[in-house]
Write a sequence for this structure.
């Protein structure tokens, strides 16, 4: 019994010599004060707390979270696939509240890069993938559906003093080709899930080429037109976010942090 009591006293004595946290500044949670009884010294430690990540699903919720967590030094980053708010970007030595909104760009950005050239597949693509877009001229889908391919054999005689030969070639013709425009314009919302919150559309111009021999219809965006449409989409979203957050435009960036 006496032995246990002595051991307990010794344990308390050893514990009393261990460094202890003293809360001297209740208004600043980023600093901890340590008192070391053994050395009779005070130490100060800066606490780096883990970042907090908040996810929202609408622009309205993003604005609400921004108002709740923002500090004097926020930054906002806008890209084609998401919006990230660093609520306290100027306090690198303290906690960062990060608010994120995942943005799903229109699948038409991808579809326009690989439009099928087969007639049947192209018609299905126009009726399904381009359902939520506007194509100019409006008669383009019908013109593609009415397109008819024809081939014919032509005999050619070659007569010579020594021998005569008979050759055959095939020529391809297209009926209703005159109804196919040389180019089309595709207009669509770049952010379908946010269409109720951001009223903006982009237009991509495409060339249309008919290959009668291969029986293909090539629809291709003009060089650089997709990149321009994506850049315009990001800028429109950036302006909308700046407006909703009532933020300093110089602190709302196009890109990722």
């Amino acid at each position: 019994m006496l032995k246990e009591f002595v051991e307990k006293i010794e344990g308390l004595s050893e514990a009393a010599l261990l460094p202890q946290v003293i809360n001297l500044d209740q208004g600043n949670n980023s600093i901890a004060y340590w008192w070391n009884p053994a050395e009779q010294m005070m130490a100060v430690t800066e606490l780096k707390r883990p970042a907090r990540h908040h996810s929202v699903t609408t622009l309205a919720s993003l604005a609400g979270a921004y108002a709740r967590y923002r500090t004097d030094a926020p930054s906002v980053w806008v890209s084609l696939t998401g919006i990230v708010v660093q609520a306290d970007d100027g306090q690198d030595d303290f906690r960062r509240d990060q608010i994120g909104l995942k943005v799903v760009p229109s699948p038409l950005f991808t579809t326009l890069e690989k439009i099928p050239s087969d007639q049947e597949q192209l018609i299905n693509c126009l009726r399904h993938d381009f359902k939520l877009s506007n194509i100019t001229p409006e008669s383009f889908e019908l013109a593609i559906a009415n397109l008819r391919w024809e081939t014919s054999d032509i005999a050619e005689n070659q007569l010579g003093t020594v021998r005569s030969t008979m050759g055959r070639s095939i020529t391809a013709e297209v009926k209703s080709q005159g109804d196919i425009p040389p180019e089309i314009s595709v207009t669509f919302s770049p952010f379908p899930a946010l269409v109720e919150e951001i009223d903006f559309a982009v237009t991509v111009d495409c060339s249309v080429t008919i290959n009668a021999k291969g029986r293909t219809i090539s629809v291709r965006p003009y060089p650089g037109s997709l990149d321009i449409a994506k850049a315009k989409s990001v800028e429109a979203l950036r302006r909308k976010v700046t407006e909703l957050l009532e933020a300093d435009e110089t602190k709302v960036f196009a890109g990722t942090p």
